[in-house]
């Protein structure tokens, strides 16, 4: 899961918790719309202690260079519904800024552009809600969903 220049620290905190709970690395493509430090990441993770695997990238070019698989952008301008898309284990699921999505050059550089269908008249979901929906489907399809704990 990758967040492109997140604007809202609380959304980053929720994404870190999501990544930790689903054993998925979180990539943060900077700059962020708020000061970000290792201490800030720990604070954003709140009471979850270790926020899991967090990888910071100073910019889009560095993220793209380091990404081993396809970059799958979730966007309201997507070409295919996420439920019809076939995910691969090494896909990076990319989510844009809360305020502006991603710029056109990033949009065009992605390997795939998918969307989450919404009810008529609705514009978009919160970025972390979108990430939870998308990540759940990608993990399910690729057999990487964490196994339930046995009480």
> Kindly, what is the distance between the CA atoms of the first and last residues, rounded to a whole number of angstroms?
29 Å
**What does the radius of gyration come to?**
15 Å
Label the CATH architecture: 3-Layer(aba) Sandwich
Q: What structural class is derived from the secondary structure elements?
A: alpha/beta
User: What's the CATH first level?
Assistant: Alpha Beta
Mass-distribution shape: globular
Major beta sheet summary:
7 strands, parallel
Low confidence ranges: none
Work out the count of structural domains.
1
CATH topology, by name, is Alpha/beta knot
Task: Count the beta strands.
Answer: 7
What does this structure look like?
This protein has 151 residues and is an alpha/beta fold. It has a single domain, classed as Alpha/beta knot (3-Layer(aba) Sandwich), CATH 3.40.1280. Helices cover 32% and strands 17% of the residues. It has a seven-stranded parallel β-sheet. Strand 1, helix 1 and strand 2 form a beta-alpha-beta unit. Helix 1 packs parallel to helix 5. The longest helix is centred in the last third of the chain and has 15 residues. The chain is globular and about 40 Å long. The model has no long low-confidence stretch (mean pLDDT 90).
């Amino acid at each position: 899961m990758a967040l492109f220049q997140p604007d809202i620290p609380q959304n980053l905190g929720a994404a870190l918790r999501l990544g930790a709970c689903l054993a998925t690395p979180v990539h943060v493509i900077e700059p962020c719309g708020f000061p970000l430090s290792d201490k800030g990441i720990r604070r954003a993770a709140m009471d979850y202690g270790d926020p899991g695997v967090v990888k910071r990238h100073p910019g889009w070019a560095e993220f793209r260079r380091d990404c081993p698989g396809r970059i799958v952008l979730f966007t309201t301008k997507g070409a295919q519904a996420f439920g019809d898309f076939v995910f691969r284990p090494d896909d990076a699921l990319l989510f844009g800024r809360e305020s502006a999505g991603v710029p056109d050059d990033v949009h065009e550089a992605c390997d795939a552009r998918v969307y989450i269908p919404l009810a008529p008249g609705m514009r978009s979901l919160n970025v972390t809600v979108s990430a939870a929906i998308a990540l759940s489907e990608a993990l399910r399809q690729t057999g990487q969903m964490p196994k339930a704990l046995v009480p």
